[in-house]
Amino acid sequence: MMGDFMQHLDQDKRQWLEERGDDITEMAERGFEMAKREHPGQSDRDLANKAVRDLQRKTYGVGDEGTKHSW
User: Fold this and answer.
1) Which residues fall within 8 angstroms of residue 35, CB to CB, at 6 or more apart?
2) Sequence ranges of the domains in the chain
């Protein structure tokens, strides 16, 4: 199933996950599966990339620009 999730990602999101390993990738994939159930009409590509962005923000405090948030 992970291959299905990864094929929907933009290159920068895929690379970010590959650099962090399987645990983070599994977390993102679970977020993707939840988003698919919550937003059935939205494209898999949008949902997969959103799942990674959400995980980046929650886990690492990274914004869309790749910079740290100033808390």
Assistant:
1) 42, 47, 50, 51
2) 2-60
List Cα–Cα distances, 69 to 12, 17, 56, 64, in angstroms.
Answer: 19, 20, 11, 10
Token readout for 65 is 């620009």
Cβ-contact 13, 53 below 8 angstroms = yes
pTM over 0.85: no
DSSP state of 68: B
Contact call for residues 48 and 3 (beta carbons, < 8 A): no
Q: Tens of pLDDT along 34-62?
A: 999 999 999 999 999 999 999 888 876 65
* Cβ 44 vs Cβ 31: under 8 Å: no
